[in-house]
Amino acid sequence: MITSIANVHAGDGNFKLSVTSDGKIILKRVQMLNADGYESTLKDVAKECTFSNTVNRYGVYMLSVSYLTVASKKTNSLNIQLFLKPGDTKLIFQGPDGKYNITGASATAQKGYEVFIYKDQASLKKIQLFESRLRQYEESGNKKAAAQIRDSISKAQSARKVQYESYIRQHPDDELSLYAMGMYKFINSENPLEVKSLLSTLGKELQATEQMMEIKKDAEENEKFMRGAKAPDFIQTDTNGVAVSLSSLRGKYLLIDFWASWCKPCRAQNPSLLRLFQKYKDKGFTILGVSLDSKKEAWLKAIHNDKLEWQQVSDLNFWSNAVAKQYKITFVPQNYLLDAHGVIIGKNLNEDALNEILEKELTHKP
Question: Long-range pairs for 145-152 at CB < 8 Å and ≥24 separation?
Fold first, then answer.
């Protein structure tokens, strides 16, 4: 047990980052920021400044720099993503175009991080382009093109996952794989078994870190929401204050729709849900809306204006809605489709996909 604890903290320590000008530029404002909110800003440092903090094996930071070019007297700015490890690291700006050289404890890790991020950003831009086209096709009503672009999005997302998987498998003992694993759990959150499987390929020491143990715990928790699992029961009050349980709605195909009156994409999809509800409500289908609203008046007004005919529940606690937290909802709209026995058979289905399932299950059954 003592050995295990030592391994967890083997990579902890302090880093010191020295930021230096080569003389061709003057550092006017240098700011360091990470996702946890650690922020330090220095102004008019001219040639050199130093940042330091404690990291658990590594820290990912954004270095924002405004500088004055000595020759042209023009002010420019740039952002640099840094992968810092414990120890001393020196970053020297080389000339007026913002190029830099990095040496010391983080040099090798930073070079690997830059390559990794470059490839990932290229994949992400491709996905974002497809998603932009999808919105255009959906708005124009071009269902054939929308279906084709969804297929392209799915393939691009799969290719991005493969990039992460390949890197982690090829670098089982590299701290950058800890970062990659942290990102992978988000992009493949709907497949917790795959997350656990990939995590198991890391070296034992990295698996024992607090970050990886937390990812494993989250993946095991997410198994409760996989296709084929029985949806966890819950109770929440409806618009009249009457308690409604998920289990009380068994016997019909049920869509749990997480939404809110303030959510524009949610409101935009309500007409499609209404069409499906009216088409299949007499064939064994219903919807339960779970709202992340905080104001009852706005919630009720949206239900009325959008002509939503199905049951609605909420505790009016915004993002702290108990059911949303139970189901790990981090964005809306989201939905789960359950069969008549309460088993999850679909997640985040659009109108066409939902219609296809309901058509098959409720219309063509003998």
Answer: 146/352, 147/352, 150/350
